[in-house]
Amino acid sequence: MSGYEDLAENYGHCYGKNELPFGKKAVLLVIDAVAGYLTPGCPLYAPVRFEEARQSIVRMIESCRAIGIPVVFSSVCYSTKNGNNGGNWYKYKLPQVLNTYDEGNPYREFAEGCEPLSSEIVVIKQYSSSFFGTCLPSILQGLGCDTLVCCGYSTSGCVRATVLDAMQHGFNPYVVRDACGDRHATVNDNSLFDMQQKFSEVRSEAEILALLEKNALKK
Q1: What is the 3-state secondary structure (H, E, C) of 202-218?
Q2: Is 152 left (phi over 0), alpha (psi -120 to 50) or beta?
Q3: How far, in Å, CA of 144 to CA of 89, rounded?
Q4: What number is the average pLDDT over the span 186-210?
Q5: What's the pLDDT score for residue 5?
Q6: Which tens digit of pLDDT belongs to each residue from 176-190?
Q7: I need a labelling partner for 33 at 20 to 30 A (CA). Which of 57, 93, 159, 188 fits?
Q8: What proportion of the chain, given as a percentage, has pLDDT over 70?
Q9: Catalytic site residues?
Q10: What would the DSSP string read from start to end of 111-162?
Q11: Under 8 Å between Cβ of 75 and 35
């Protein structure tokens, strides 16, 4: 065997050799943690992974609020007829999924325990990345953010797209493994593996909370 057939050894030839620093000013970004993922009958719904992740997301939100780490939320909303502001993604590729984010649809309300406070920022988007076409970069710069802690739904879609853009905008992305959900464990785990190798640091909820608490104590 050349060493390229084994996954870990293959990637080890190229990726995963270095670690992003956890900076002095972290912000928690909760990505698309909406009710549809947890509601039977909604196309987004899957019964296990999303609920497990929701519980971790809630703990992350509560812990960050308690120690003074800013929490920012992102969500999708289509407010034009037939989702025209969602372009071809809405019109051709995923209309039966993305219409759950139409303005007024209860599926796009935040999931239980994931509701933002009136003082917290909600970024509205139309595409996968929380950065694309939004004011999120300016918001994070205004908060002095150097490390973006990411969690939410779905791991292979909006979380991964946001993490990639976080890196490209100059923030150090950290992903909370327990607080991300996808439709299938294989897809979820493969996406986390790929993000860890190339774009971010993927850590457990306990590890991330320890870093955040250490960060808060330095203030």
Answers
A1: EECHHHHHHHHHHHHHC
A2: left
A3: 33
A4: 96
A5: 66
A6: 999 999 999 999 999
A7: 93
A8: 97
A9: 158
A10: PTT-PPPTTSEEEEESSSSSSTTSSHHHHHHHTT-SEEEEEEE-IIIIIHHH
A11: no
